[in-house]
Design goal:
Inositol monophosphatase family protein, alpha+beta, 8 helices, Inositol_monophosphatase-like, 7-stranded mixed β-sheet
Length: 277
């Protein structure tokens, strides 16, 4: 059993055969929803006001949800839905679908390629499976609690690097209207990492950085605040790929935590030290 799963609160029980089947069907649903968004992708969507921006974002979300909801409802009729993709904190007992129907939605509107569709099933406040599809590359990332992380069926493994000074690290900046304290903390952490790491990447969305951590392409990712839909898919993928998931102080991470760190085991302690300065 991976150490990171034991120590972070992410589900550690091996998935049953039914969960494995459910993951396969969830991946199919996510790919179908991503195809709907792919048809809407191409030209930059122009907007002049915050209201116009929000309508454009909602239109993308609705296009994907129109595909996802009926398919996932058939798979798990009694599971409830997290309606607010920006929400954080613990969920009530039972099964919940946590979706980001257009992860990286602003990128999609700006004709940038960094966006995806995600679906994660949470059972009694533990993520048990997740599927993430990137339609522009055709890649599907999946993870099953206790069953490993995969890219198109191939096992994923985090980086084996042991020196933060040789590491590629990443973070996502604050959301619009983020609390000033969080914004300043993000800025300080980027400055600290610029001194200690090899290269620092700053962009959205968080999920795509976490896919790269799980695949061993990026050595660490951190974020302050953040939503369940941003972090749960990548947290399960990284944990199942052998990475460590904690908060920025090195304590066990939960969706109620105020910070998040996903790292290859060899650089995790150094990353915590840097972020704690």
């Amino acid at each position: 059993m991976p150490e990171s799963i034991q120590t972070t609160g992410i589900a550690a029980t091996a998935g049953s055969a039914s969960d494995a089947d459910l993951l396969a069907q969830t991946a199919i649903a996510v790919r179908a929803a991503a195809s709907a968004l792919r048809e809407r992708f191409g030209e930059v969507v122009r907007y002049r006001t915050r209201e116009e921006l929000m309508r454009a974002l909602a239109a993308n979300d609705d296009a994907a949800l129109d595909v996802l909801r009926p398919r996932l409802t058939l798979l798990r009729p009694d599971a409830r839905w997290v309606e607010d993709e920006l929400a954080g904190g613990a969920l009530p007992p039972g099964e919940w679908w946590v979706l980001d129907p257009a992860e990286g939605n602003v990128n999609h509107l700006h004709a940038l390629p960094e966006w995806a569709v995600t679906a994660t099933l949470v059972r009694d406040n533990q993520p048990v499976l997740t599927a993430v599809h990137l339609p522009l590359t055709g890649e599907t990332y999946t993870a099953l609690a206790g069953g490993g992380a995969h890219l198109d069926g191939r096992p994923l493994h985090v980086s084996q690097i042991t020196d933060l000074g040789l590491s590629l690290v990443a973070t996502s900046q604050a959301r619009p209207d983020e609390d000033e304290t969080v914004v300043r903390r993000i800025g300080s952490s980027i400055t600290a990492m610029l001194f200690d790491a090899l290269v620092v990447r700053t962009s959205v969305p968080a999920t795509l950085h976490l896919l790269n951590v799980a695949a061993g392409r990026i050595d660490a990712f951190w974020q302050f605040a953040g939503a369940r839909a941003d972090l749960l898919p990548g947290a399960l993928l990284v944990a199942e790929a052998g990475g460590r998931i904690t908060d920025a102080e090195g304590s066990p991470w939960t969706p109620e935590s105020e910070s998040f760190l996903a790292a290859a085991p060899g650089v995790h302690t150094e990353a915590v030290t840097t972020l704690s300065r």
